[in-house]
Amino acid sequence: MPRVLYAWSGLPQMPEVALHLMQTIGWEPVLWISYAHQERRVRELFPATPWQDLEDAFIGIPIPGVNSAQPPTLDADLLLRLQSYLPRLMNQMNRFGPPDHFLYDERESFARNLLFQWHEALMNTTPDVVFFEEPPNSPYNYALYVLCRELRIRTVYLNATSIEGRSLLRECIEQPPLRLGETMQKTPVDHSSAAIPEKLRRAVAALTESQDFTHRYMQDQADYDARQIAAVMPKRPLGALKWLTIKVAHGLNIKKWPLFIRNYRASHIRSTPTRVIRRKLPGIPMGTRVCTVGELNDYKTRARAIKEHLRADYIRRCEEPDYANDHYVYFPLHYRPERTSNPDGGVFYDQIIPLAMISEALPPNWKIYVKEHPSQLGMALEGECGRTTQYY
């Protein structure tokens, strides 16, 4: 009976899917990782299967009943093979906060602990397959993925597409989706085929035929930004004062306030404990789930100030292209941190590398027009984690 480790994000139907797989093809769950709201259902269906909160997995907390307090180290040969993955693994830690929140030595230590922890988990649970709900694009599941690759444990994951409700099944980042190439070779693409459901046919047409197509997630971000701007724009006499106060507050670096003011805010004004969700606050070790509301609000204020500073720096460097007279290559940047650049980009996860290669390959007098991704500096996402002014 194949043994399966489920690394899920908590889609509500997945416990039933796993139960169906166990009953039909004999897949036996040996470890389950998901959001806390799914714990009860998983334990009902698979009472003997160890379970871990996904948020604990993200920050490297050991798995109850699976990991020891001090996971054993890896042998030198395996450590040497894992070195090639280390830059991408450490770069993915940008998801936890701005680069100066998570310093190099801290990242290296966290990466090492993740590899030790997940290697011990694989040795103790001995899965034949590790099934991810989504592409392994965060430190915890990427560490698990690369260990599986080196230990020759099969991986399977769902890769969402631009068509809502449709996913592809994949085994590894470096190869195309399973059976997709064979299917396309055997079956010519015919958008008018009656065999294609109408909903799917309309979705494909929107992607291939529209002149002004906008991905749904991009429209959602634009709507969010519009609501945020509308919330702080002056609408009445007192609105102007409120708007000015917010702008001043965002422009100040709270970390430079006098120490007695910071202590007063932390201990008396906003000292209520709260849980940190995938955040690395400066000076607080990775693996800490509790901070104060004040510390978390300080982070959000600083994140917004960083994005405003990045936007100003980027705009200052922009120039109007001369399309009529220039020979040029257009290079739109990917949003970071995001799966499309890391890990899907492989060695090109740092987009400076392909830019440098293109620059060397171009004839004299050619230019490269580089454009920032619209999501990078928007308020809806976490662009403060993926860029610095040094990058521009």
Explain what this protein looks like in three dimensions.
A hairpin with a 6-residue loop joins β5 (154-160) and β6 (167-170). It is built from 14 helices and 10 strands. With 392 residues, it is α/β, with parallel strands linked by helices. α6 (104-125) crosses α7 (139-151). 43% of the residues lie in helices and 12% in strands. The radius of gyration is 24 Å and the shape is globular. A 6-stranded mixed β-sheet has the order 3-2-1-4-5-6, with helices on both faces.
Percent helix: 40-55%
Q: How many strands appear in the DSSP assignment?
A: 10
Q: What's the shape?
A: globular
- Give the distance, in angstroms, between the N- and C-terminal Cα atoms: 53 Å
Show unreliable segments: none
Task: Give the DSSP E fraction (strand runs of 2 or more residues).
Answer: 5-15%
Average pLDDT over all residues: 84
Q: How many strands, which pairing sense, and closed or not: the largest β-sheet? A: 6 strands, mixed
Strand pairing plus helix content: what structural class? alpha/beta
Q: Report strand order across the widest sheet.
A: 3-2-1-4-5-6
Compute the number of helices.
Answer: 14
Would you list the SSEs in sequence order as H and E? EHEHEHHHHEHEEHHHHHEEHEHE
- Backbone CA Rg: 24 Å
